[in-house]
Amino acid sequence: MIELFPQSDNDQFISTPDAERYFEKPSEIPICQNCKAKVAYHEWGEDGVEFACHGNILRFHFIDGNLARVEELLE
Asked: What pLDDT score was predicted for residue 75?
């Protein structure tokens, strides 16, 4: 697993509501806010979701269905 770090807001290419929607319904693939296309990579898990696009990764962690934290790839 790739080591990620606390999200810094430098490259929030997926909005929190989009990540929450995908967590609830994995068929709703989010649109990257930078390139305006569906994210290049998406993975759903029981306790989180992960997205990658244009060289960055965002991992959203959920506890009891609520967003707990966001991590990103360190540049």
From this structure: 58
